[in-house]
Input
Amino acid sequence: MWNVLNSMWQDKLQKIIEMLEASDVNEIEVNFWGRKFRVSKSANVLSGPASVSQPTTVTVENPAPEADPDQGASPAAGGEESEGVEVTAPMVGTFYAAPSPESPPFVSVGDYVSAGQTLCIIEAMKIMNEIESDVTGRIAKIVVQNAEPVEYGQPIFLITLD
Output
């Protein structure tokens, strides 16, 4: 009996793997007979109880905003914001400033960051996505609070360029 059940779930799991490879989805988690299985394109099949997923990396690409020649810099605008790059959420999810509740935040206001440096994590559908800076500069503003939901395109950081 166990050989039949074992063969059945392996066949189903193989079909899921084939479907995943042929799709744009990077990871899927399924339950078979009380056991959870996570299948990911970037890692091997994991079996057993589901654990916290490892962060994947998403690079945020936000070009520096072009200056509008018709619009002069007003004194109230502040010089730093006119030279800054707004980093927006690349997906809908939950914003996390640190890798775990016990850890310090990835970045704080005033920190110097370089291109490729992790700024935060956005959890989307139980997948932790590391958000990296694509510019070098200083964190001028963190727009959202830890564990707040964010929408696609919502500003999350302002980085002044050096």
Observations:
- Residues 43-48, 57-81 have pLDDT under 50 and may be disordered.
